[in-house]
Structure formats: structure tokens, C-alpha cells
Amino acid sequence: MMTNKSIKNICCIGAGYVGGPTMAVFADKCPDMNITVVDKDKERIKKWNDQDTGNLPVFEPGLEEIIKKVRDKNLHFSNEIEKTIENSDIIFLCVNTPVKDKGFGAGQASDLKFIESCARQVAKHSKNHTIVIEKSTLPVRTAATIRTILNSSQGDNISDSKTFSVLSNPEFLAEGTAINDLKNPDRVLIGGEDQESIEALAKIYQNWVPEEKIIRTNLWSSELSKLTANAFLAQRITSINSIAAFCENSGGDIEEVANAIGSDKRIGSKFLNAGPGFGGSCFKKDISNLVYLSEYFGLPEVAEYWNSIIKLNNWQKLRISKLIVQKLFGTLRGKSIAILGFAFKANTNDTRESPAIDICKNLLVEGANLIIHDPKVSEEQMTKNLGMKANYICNNQDSNDYESTWSKNENIYSSLSGVDAVVILTEWDIYKNLDWKKISKLMRKPAWIFDTRGLLDITKLNNTDLNFWKIGDGLEK
Ligand code: UDX
Ligand code: UDX
Fold it and tell me: Residue 4 domain-assigned?
């Protein structure tokens, strides 16, 4: 049960892509609240506190401006997790929930170790009544686990007044548009049982979100809605990608098809861009989770249905890699390829599950020399993702007898000098209006441009001697 005390102090555990931007917007919209974002990662907190906001650990358009405005006023970043929990009325759990890599459900089920350890920390250090809010995407019924942990702490308790309410309040922001999504959400979903706590949270959102957009449900519906929303979105991208492959083989044009079907209001025009396959921290993980849960609940056909989305998404990355090799005469040895874009989508520095990772790895295995450009992804991050240092020549005599290497180049045009192919993997705006006549002079012939995002206007490549492949474009050129 809630006490009548008004909500003043908010704690958010997890200063990542969700916790940081979400709390920045909360602080901006609720000047009377005092918000502290805590994280066990000291380096991350240091970056959030860096006076040069260009060094924030997360890149999101509009984020720097808000941070400049509210940081050290009513928004704080700290490593003092216990003390912050102690002083907070509401605690948001924004920690990551990776897929389990060992044991039962490995590769599919979510690993709740971070959520569990946070719940234990909250149980131990909170005082009085605390509202604990799940923001991370979690498997259905995780709230029950959190509640059990919180309630069982009361035995070894210091104060009898220590009570908890658990709410589910999933975040639907998409990276790259996070600030706008947070300021103008399609809906805010609050799941729970304790009406007073639900209304306390709704009251915070009412500072900027119209009441009709705040949906109240039970806990399980809220948790399941988040998984389902992500599964539907991923399924939609996979559907359009499958039809893109169909177009390429049958003479259709995916942009025309997307436009034609999208004008049907029941289908809608958004999220119909064919691409190299979906990436990001949520889609694959959430579908894997749905597959695991379906099997757990004795629904193998449902599991198989959702699993086919993951399979098709993997196939999309593979088929693009294969066709690049094919067009370059079946071998990449001794060939250089410029990769434009490494992030999983534009306007973010996030590379989690980026299709660029698998595609670049496939090209490296074929012996390519990759020159990678991305306006926001660091060389350090690329090294982690590719599992190999830049400029390191991988000469694997035993298996494939290939030599491959990669480097990062900050300048687009110099990265294209002497290359045999350009592969556009992320839809950054800066790639839209390149000077293809100039590029054509820089490249080794025969030269290929592979546009996996359908970003380029083909007329801009007219009067060049570049060969051009575009996703979902089956017209003969
Ligand atoms: C996202 C979403 O919140 C979630 O819905 C999805 O399920 C997984 O990823 P995100 O903010 O993108 O979370 O994750 P990340 O950028 O990895 O940030 C999580 C932060 O939590 C990290 O900075 C990590 O150090 C921190 N953390 C994790 C803690 O502070 N304590 C822990 O016990 C675990
Ligand atoms: C997603 C959900 O959109 C968001 O609601 C949830 O909170 C977290 O997961 P995010 O992963 O940040 O957000 O980005 P999103 O815009 O959904 O894109 C996911 C992937 O799909 C990206 O790789 C993107 O390039 C790809 N995509 C998206 C397409 O290939 N085509 C499209 O039309 C849209």
C-alpha cells in the first residue's frame, strides 16, 4: 500500500541507452523531481558526467541539449547505488537483460541475473514505501520474481514500514529518435495491481503526456504487450525483407510494393523499409524469449512460427553477403570493399546485433580488405564486434587460406579510393547525396555499389560506370 507521501526522489538503476535518455526527459519535464541515475559501471557514469557533452556514452539527437540543461540541477549520475536507493520513493530498473549463454534456455531465455541482483539491492537498502518499476523488457511474470525477492527481504528488516509495489512500465522508445519518442509517446503503459502506485506513476507522466495516452493494465498484460510489440515490428520487417528478395528475382520493385500496400490504412505505411535485416538490442532477444516461453507453455507450433522470423532475418544477412561475393566474381581475395555504416540503424552509436557485424564477418572470411566508415561508431567498438583488431592481417592457412583485414576511415571519399565495391549498411543521411561521379573516378573497375538500405536515387548514378545493386530492386539495368 502507498503512503500519502508525495513522490520527490527518483532513482534509475542502469545508465544505458534506455535509462540515460529516459531520465533526462523525466528531469526536463518534471523540474520538481530529483532524479539520480546510478550504474555499477564507473566509466559509464564518468562519461555521463563529462563536461564535454560530446563524450556522453550514448548518442541520441537532442540528448546533449537536455543534459546541458538539467544535469547537476535535478538530474544526477552516480555510482552510489545503495545511498541513492535509500533516499528514493520510486526506483526504475533499466538494467540490461541479455540472453542466457549457459544452462537451461541458453541462447533463448532472458538472463535475469541483473534484475535479480538489483531487486536484492533494493530490498536491502530501501526505506519506507518504495515503488519498483520494471522498464527493461522482461519475460512475462518477471514482476512476480521481483515481488517475491522484495517481500522476502522484510524478514531481515530494519523497519516495519518497509513496503513495496511493483509496476511494469515498459519503454517503447526507438534508438535514434529516443528523445522525440519520450517527449511524444504513442502511449504510456502502466501495469500493476496497487492502484495508488499506478496513479502516482501516471501523475509523473501527466506532466507532459495527455491522460488518454496513459494505458493502465494488469502486470502480465503490460509485460506481454512489450514483447508482442517488438515481435510484431520484427515480423513486419522480416515480411517486407522476404518480399524484397522476391522482387529481386521476379522483376518487382520493393519501394513500389511497400508504397502500394502501405496506403491501405489497415496495414499502414511505417516500418516497411526493406534492409539488410533487423538489428538492435531488443528484437532478436525478445523473439527468442517468446520462442522459449511458447515451448515452455507447451506451444511448439507457436514457437516455430516466431522462430522462423529469426531464421529469415539470418538468411537475409547471409544472402546479401553471398550476392556481394558472387557479383565480385566469386572471390574477395585481394579486393577492397568500403563499408558505409556500422551502427544497427542511423542516428545511434549502438551496434548491438547490427547486421553490419555478420555481413562484415562474412566478407572477411572471404578474404576481403574492409575499409569501414561510420559517423558515430568508434574503432574500439568495431574491434569488439568483429573480434579482430584493425589493420591486423588475418592469414588463416589451415582453414580457408584467406588473408583479410579491416580499418576504420573517418573520411568517406578517402575510404573509397581504389576499392572494388561500396556496401551501404546503415541509412545515415550523409550517404544519401554523395558525389558518385567523383567516387567513380576513385574506384577500381569494374566497380560495384551495393545499397542494402534502398537509400540511393539511381538517377544520381547515371552517367557513371558504376554497377549498381539495390535491395528489392528487380528491374534490369
Ligand atoms: C536495454 C533495455 O532497457 C531493455 O529493455 C533490453 O531488454 C536490454 O537493453 P539498455 O539501456 O539498452 O537496456 O542497456 P545498456 O545500454 O546495456 O544499459 C544497461 C546498464 O545497466 C549498463 O550501463 C550496466 O552497467 C547497468 N547495470 C547492469 C547496472 O548498473 N547494474 C546491474 O546489475 C546490471
Ligand atoms: C525497437 C522498437 O522500435 C522500440 O519500440 C523498442 O522499445 C526497442 O526496440 P530500436 O531497436 O531502437 O527499437 O529501433 P527500430 O527503429 O525498431 O529498428 C530496429 C531494426 O529494424 C533496425 O536494425 C532497423 O534498421 C530495422 N528496420 C526498421 C528496418 O530494417 N526497416 C524498417 O522499416 C524499420
Answer: no
Same domain, 177 and 233: no
**Does the beta carbon of 97 sit less than 6 angstroms from any atom of ligand 1?**
yes
Residues 118 and 45 placed together within one structural domain of the fold = yes
CB 133 within 8 A of CB 23: no
Q: How far apart are CA 87 and CA 89, in angstroms?
A: 7
Place of cell 546503415: 426
Residue nearest to atom 30 of ligand 1 (CA): 39
Q: Are residues 163 and 310 in the same domain?
A: no
Residue at 3 is within a domain: no
Cα–Cα nearest to 108, from 290, 245, 361, 374: 290
| Amino acid, res. 286 | D
pLDDT digits (tens, 9 = 90+) for 375-431: 999 999 999 999 999 987 766 555 555 578 999 999 999 889 999 999 999 999 999
Beta strands in 214-298 (DSSP E): 214-217
The residue out of 183, 217, 251 marking a domain boundary is: 217
User: Ligand 2 centre and the CA of 120: distance in Å?
Assistant: 32
366: three-class secondary structure by DSSP: coil
> What is the tally of structural domains in the chain?
2
Tell me how far apart the alpha carbons of residues 362 and 126 are, in angstroms, rounded to a whole number.
49
222 and 337 together in one domain: yes
CATH of residue 261's domain is 3.40.50.720
Phi, psi of 33 (to 5 degrees): -95, 150
- pTM for the model stands at 0.93
In terms of domains, do 89 and 103 share one? yes
CA-CA-CA-CA torsion sign (391, 397, 398, 404): positive
Identify the domain containing residue 167 by its residue range.
9-217
The number of helices, as runs of H, and strands, as runs of E, in the chain is 16, 15
3 — pLDDT class (breaks 50, 70, 90): very low
Is the CB of 205 within 6 Å of ligand 1? no
| Whether the Cβ atoms of residue 393 and residue 405 lie closer than 8 Å to each other | yes
Q: pLDDT grade, residue 77 (50/70/90)?
A: very high
Element (H, E) at 403: strand 402-408
Mutate to test the pocket of ligand 2, among 257, 283, 310, 429 (most ligand atoms within 8 A of CB): 283
Are residues 66 and 118 in contact, defined by beta-carbon separation less than 8 angstroms?
no
